[in-house]
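SAMPLE LOG
Freezer: B-3
Tube label: C17
Construct: single chain, 149 aa
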Amino acid sequence: MQERCRSMGTERGSAMKGHARQLMTARVVVATQDTSLAEAARLLAGVETSGLPIIDAAGQVVGIVTESDLLEALLSPAAVETPIHGLMTTHVVTVDEFTPADSVIRLLREKRFHHLPVTRQGQVVGLITPQDVIRYFVEHELPLPPEVA
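STRUCTURE (predicted):
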């Protein structure tokens, strides 16, 4: 297994082929800073991602709200009409859809990011989480499992 991991870009000097767009979940929803806590929860519940990029009027990412942020707020005495701007993380790193996959993985590992919005000309087109990278490895890099008889 150690040899296989080296070929997947986890050791120095080895690069994983591909780009961010091949790792990302493309079905992502976005919200604005004025979106209510209730609406943000509804949006996130309707997709298979654990983060909700927050955009400004020009469509640029200005923050992110995660499922953990929402859960904490929903379990607190905060009103569900409260805008989410108070609970979003404002320091958000994004990657272009053509960012090399090994650079994306390096960001996730070294910076310990769990949500990485993917952009095309500044607009959100996807989201990458560690789960997406694991899914990619299983579907494209790992050997097929032996068939069950």
